[in-house]
Design a protein that fits this description.
Chain A is α/β, with parallel strands linked by helices. Chain A contains nine helices and twelve strands. In chain A, the strands form three sheets. Chain A has a six-stranded mixed β-sheet with strand order 6-7-8-3-9-10, sandwiched between helices. A four-stranded antiparallel β-sheet of chain A has the order 2-1-4-5, covered by helices on one side. In chain A, strands 11-12 form a two-stranded antiparallel ribbon. Chain A starts with 6 loop residues before the first strand and ends in a 10-residue tail after the last strand. The model of chain A has no long low-confidence stretch (mean pLDDT 91). Chain B is globular and about 65 Å long. Classes of the chains: A alpha/beta, B mainly alpha. Chains A and B meet through helix 2 and helix 3 of A and helix 9 and helix 10 of B.
Chain lengths: 274, 340
Amino acid sequence: MAELAPSRIEVRDLTLMYGHDTVLDALSLPIPAGKVTVLAGPNGCGKSTLLRAIRRLHLGQRGQILLDGVDIGSLGAKDLARQIGLLAQSPSAPPDMSVEELVRLGRYPHQAMLQPWSEKDGAAVHRAMEGTGVDNLRHRRIGSLSGGQLQRAWIAMVLAQETDIICLDEPVNHLDMAHQLDCLDLVAKLNREDGRTIVLVLHDLNLAARYADQLVFVHEGRVRALGKPEELMMPELLAEVFEVDAAIMTDPVHGRPICIPRGRAKVKRVREVA
Amino acid sequence: MASTMALPNRRSRLGASKATVYAGLIGLMALSMLMSLTLGYKIYSLDQVFGALFAHDGSETAVVIAGLRLPRALIAPLTGAALGMAGVIVQTLSRNRIASPDTLGLNGGASLAVVVGSVVFGVQSLAGLSLAAAFGAFITSIVVFGVAASAGGLSPLKIVLVGVTFASLSHALVEVILTSNEAQLQQLLFWLSGAFVDRPISLFYNGLPVVLVGAVLGIGLSRALDALQADDSTAAGLGVPLAAVRGVAFLAVALLTGAAVSMAGPVAFVGLVVPHAARRLVGLRHIHQLPAAALFGAVYTTLADVAARFVIYPVEAPVGAITAVVGAVVLLVLLARRAA
């Protein structure tokens, strides 16, 4: 695998169980600084759980997660929230909340209990709304927004948190094709222009290959493979992890690999012998 | 493109800044309290009212105004303020716009605790009964949320169903206890339905600090409550300590509801109606939602108490009946709009 930047986050031998079900099985993963890492895998493979564990919304039973070499378990809740932002899967807020009220929520980890709203807070909210193009919607109720506008408002909320690392859990679900690109281009811009470290969970493999610096295939609670998209988009690997028989081509526009599924894979899955 | 044009904000269309809203509400509160002092079976002039308040000459006017009307004019707004703030917090915690201290059974639990404390344990002091009311509300909130959660997730409708069940249950238990203790029936009857008639002014002095503590807790949590309006994952992602915030918030709700019940008994649906008005006036941030709900609740309850004196004049209607009618209409409208 090609050498990427040094790791911001290092997942080490993380085992996470819900009751008796092992969701993550001694999983290890480096997340390089300033890069876009995309977690992909079939339903139930543990990729969302892994993302949420990185944001400490789930606690593992064994192993650890290091942020700049420090165990995230030892950080305070607000401290961690100033370093890692999370856009949850299908987030919700009251429909009569205004866009600006929603974006202001992102300032929570920067404020002490009764500390008044500061200029810094105002500037961060303003920048977040401008960067996502929702500043002209600031007084609109979020219940009146279109799907694409709403998702940009939520991204603005996470941006107002001003974290170096941003985790997004399936941010383009329920969006049409144009708004999927709109949303992911925005995320790519945050990475390119501000050098933020991005961790994404995506279902669509072609979108994953297009936006990832580091692509990660999660399978049965383990990292099956990681690397550049062109290293991972291989017919045998897709057959094993996703159970599809796919042809791989190079996207003539972006030069990224794309897959065209022919159908369910007929090959029997082979478990790697460790 | 029409869809991306900034439409005027529904709230700013009221054309009032927050300072104007607060000034207006404070003015209305003062006005409603004056109405509460002057209007009733007998109508007094402002001169008579001020004369009676500042000169205790023992005249009939002075006795009626200082002894009967003043307590109502103080207890009604404090009760409304407490229930309004409790309603805001409960609706945020349950992410449910039809939740309130009533629909979650907290009023009922507080009443039951007062009656049990009085009849079974012989508690007589007002402080003791207030404490019992707060305790009852707190226990009920834990039980209702516990049962709703164990019944598979805290869906808004499920919480209300469990709450209404507990409200009926505690109401039934209160009736059983009171009818089997007829000697105490008369003096405890007001725990069955809310009223401000014949309340000693000491109830106000007793309730005031409890309401203040509840209000301070609520305001202190205002930013965390803002974040809790979003889903749990988002709130936790922002660094909100969910369990701790919920625990303190429930304590605030229990203190506010308990204080209200200890002063007036269960005044129906105030906590359901008032938060809706507050949000329309000042928006969803709790640092504004809570004070606006306190002020609007004070105005609403005081006016309801004045209205209760006239709807079946010369006899007084129970104020709880007035707020129940208004609240029922609002609840039906909200349900029809599927705000739940």
